[in-house]
Amino acid sequence: MPRLAKRMKKLVEKRPAEALPLSEAVAALKAFDGTRFDQSVEIALRLGVDPAQADQIVRGSIVLPHGIGKEQRVVVFAKGPQAEAAREAGADEVGDEDLAKKILDGWTDFDVCIASPDMMKVVGPLGRVLGPRGLMPSPRAGTVTPEVAKTISEYKAGKVEFRNDKGGNIHAIVGKLSFDEQKLVENVEAFIKKILGMKPSAVKGTYLKSAHLSATMSPSVKLAV
Question: Is 159 exposed, middle or buried, given 0-12, 13-18 or 19+ CB atoms closer than 10 A?
């Protein structure tokens, strides 16, 4: 059995069987650590939504209290004063038709794509490239916006986008395993509160069905929700 598989098997055997309060779940997750790199911490929520219904899609973004411990690479579609503002705000790359061509040619070495509203004719054809990667700018996600500089600053500070998948699940990075326990707890609390506040009115019955925390190379821990 490969070394990595043996390690994971041992961790799974140590994993608590019951759902834990958030602070205990974070402590259990940190106890799994034994790698030489700083693992990302992810939350997975199972929602009681019907993803086939447009009025039950849960999608948005949030600036977590303590960021996600990662410098996000941001590209921006803008021109004129908006482009200059984007550069001053720290965008990693700014452009219009030239940037669109670069992406169509296969370049996707970035984490966030933002566009000013007047650039959507240029951005629209990129849907087949950016859509499957979750990078397509969207008004609903707040990445199509006239407030380009402000949005760049938010993502650089740790803004996280989320959207339920076809199974009604939401996955998102909520920090790094090196964060102290309280910071991870506060990030997770903020994320769950945001999702609960977005419950679609069309949803009947239990909305938040389950929640799990995991790290890049660890088994998941179930949260008591």
Answer: buried
User: Angle at which helices 22-31 and 181-196 pack, to 10 degrees?
Assistant: 130
Per-residue tokens: 37: 């790199």
Distance CA 168, CA 51 (A): 6
Quick check: helix, strand or coil at residue 216? coil
Using CB atoms within 10 A of its CB, is residue 40 exposed (0-12), middle (13-18) or buried (19+)? middle
3-class DSSP state of 45: strand
What token pair was written down for 225?
């929700």
- How much of the chain is helix, strand and coil, in % rounded to 5? 35, 20, 40
The model's pTM is 0.77
**CB of 182 within 8 A of CB of 175?**
no
Identify which of 54, 60, 55, 74 has the alpha carbon closest to the alpha carbon of residue 141.
60
Sign of the torsion formed by the C-alpha atoms of 157, 166, 215 and 220: positive
pLDDT 10s per residue in the chain (225 long)?
455 565 556 665 566 668 999 999 999 999 887 778 899 999 999 999 999 999 999 998 898 999 999 888 999 999 999 999 999 999 999 999 999 999 999 999 999 999 999 999 999 999 999 999 889 999 988 899 999 999 999 998 888 889 999 999 999 999 999 999 999 999 999 999 999 999 999 998 999 999 999 998 888 999 998
Cβ neighbours of residue 2 under 8 Å, at least 6 residues apart?
none
